[in-house]
Structure formats: C-alpha cells, structure tokens
Amino acid sequence: MRRLGFARIAGVDEVGRGALAGPVVAAAVVLPAGDRLVGLRDSKLLSPAARDRLNDEILRVCLSWSVGLGDRDTIDRVNIHHASLAAMRAAVTALSPLPDFALVDAFRIPRLFIPQRGIVGGDRRCAGIAAASIVAKVFRDRLMVELHQVDPRYGFDRHKGYGTAEHLTALARHGYSPAHRLSFRPSSVFDTIV
Q: Could you tell me which of 26, 25, 69, 22 has the C-alpha nearest to residue 181?
C-alpha cells in the first residue's frame, strides 16, 4: 500500500469473538515504515510472555494505536459479528491522526470513511494486523484478569472467558454472571445441569 502513496497504514484485528464472557476487543495499530519487530506474528501463535513482550515493543515503536470494545450488552443486542465490526470501526476512528488506509483481518468494516482492504488470514500475512492482534489480545486478557478479581468463581484469569471445561463447570454451578453474554448458550452447560 505504501507504494500506492499511503503513508499511515493501520492494521486492524479483534479478539474475543468466540468467548462466552467479556467484551470483544479490537485494536488498530499504525507501525512505522520499515520497522521490523522480531517475533511479530498472530497473537494466537505466541505464548502469553511473548505477547506481553511484543505488546510493550509495539506500543513503544508504533506511530499510534487505539482499541475499541463491544461489551456484553452490545453483543447480545446486535450479535457478535456486528459488535466486532463496530469495535474495529471505533478503534480505527480513534486513531490520531487518522490513518490513510486500513488493512483489516478478514473483513471490510462497514461505514469506515477511509480506504480499506480486508485480508483473509491477515494476522499471519501482515505485520500491522499481527501487531493489532497482539495489542487487542493483551488488552482483553488484562480486562479478563480484572473481571476475575471482581468475581473469581469462573476462573476468567485462566481461560479468559472462553468455553473451557473449567468454565463450563463453573457456569453449571453458578449460572451466568454480569460478564457473560446471554446470547451465548453452550448446550453442554445445560446438559451438565440436567
């Protein structure tokens, strides 16, 4: 994109789509041209320690970054896909100054008033999108640790709200908390209760 004259290119990605609890979090990151962060890759391919280290490096070298959130109520009202797109749009539009172009993992963002391109598998093919995936993941993981401190019954600090056996067992025992998405009802929870 830089060869086409775009200087400030934002990478955009989100995390938390498949979780049963907590927000969906999107990040937008503008990396400087030519900066090579060692080990930069899709957040899902990194250990928590590597993600934390890279997150700190990304925030130190990037030209700008921001996050957007889709909370539980938004997810339940409009569905996870639309909440994710809204969070990505919020992340991009919060950048200052605004980017010239956005490279987005998988999807195009509706009603985004800057040029953009959706790239399938972008978090593995584009440094900016990989950086955004790391920033979003670290930001969301830290939010889930905070939720755990408020209500430790569910183990959010360990599974980050995803549907692990531990989480499903806690759901069967305690029911849904204010952090849980009411529109996400895994049948295994109710199979366990009956």
A: 22
Q: Is residue 121 within 8 Å of residue 41, measured between CB atoms?
A: no
Q: Strand 24-30 to strand 116-119: parallel, antiparallel, or no bridges (unpaired)?
A: unpaired
- What is the per-residue pLDDT for 50? 95
pTM score, two decimals?
A: 0.92
Q: How far apart are CA 65 and CA 56, in angstroms?
A: 12
Domain extent, residue 97, equals 2-144
Q: What is the pLDDT of residues 130-166, one digit of tens each?
A: 999 999 999 999 999 999 999 999 999 999 999 999 9
Residue 162 lies in a domain: no
